[in-house]
Amino acid sequence: MFRLVRVSLFLVVVLSVALVASMGLTILTYVRLTAEEPIAKMYFEPLGEDLFEAHLAAGEGGDVGIFEIYGDQWRIDAEFIKLKPWANVMGMDARYKLVRFEGRYRDINDENTKPKMAYDLGQGDVLDLMNYLAEWNFLVDAEYGSSTFTDIKQDTLYTVYRTQSGIIVRSEPMPDPIGYEPTMMDDVRAWVSGN
User: Fold this and answer.
1) Strands laid side by side in the 51-58 sheet
2) Is the model's pTM score more than 0.85?
3) How confident is the model at residue 127 (pLDDT cuts 50, 70, 90)?
4) Are 61 and 77 in contact (CB under 8 A)?
């Protein structure tokens, strides 16, 4: 009887450890497959109608560039290497190289008739795609271009993220300068605009 209790207790402990390990691996898999990393930040200042000065900081060192762009939207493009999911779970991240930054117009007629300007960025963690593919091709799921765009809004900070499958953008209101205290008029404006 005592032996049966010991074996049962041992099985309960082993199954509990297996359950905890399984839950831990499930959480790790989710975290790795949904991992995001900020790769660029930008904000815009108007210079004229459909003309903006874009302040862009990209890469690990935060290389800053100021670009004049035309349009009512902006777009950033990247060369992208998507790794196989098991490589992501093992701790490896997708690779990217920011290649182009430009303005664009929401209206297709404006896009085809108004001035445009595009800039070569050449920023990212993929310095030599061919060598990477030659050495690690069993890890690579796909190689493709990834792009994201959105409307240009003043007083907005845009952050571009590298996910495991492409690039995405999120926006937030520009942070207030250090020491800034909002006035009653600022509170009224925020209330009227719904922010």
Assistant:
1) 63-70, 51-58, 37-48, 156-162, 167-173
2) no
3) very low
4) no
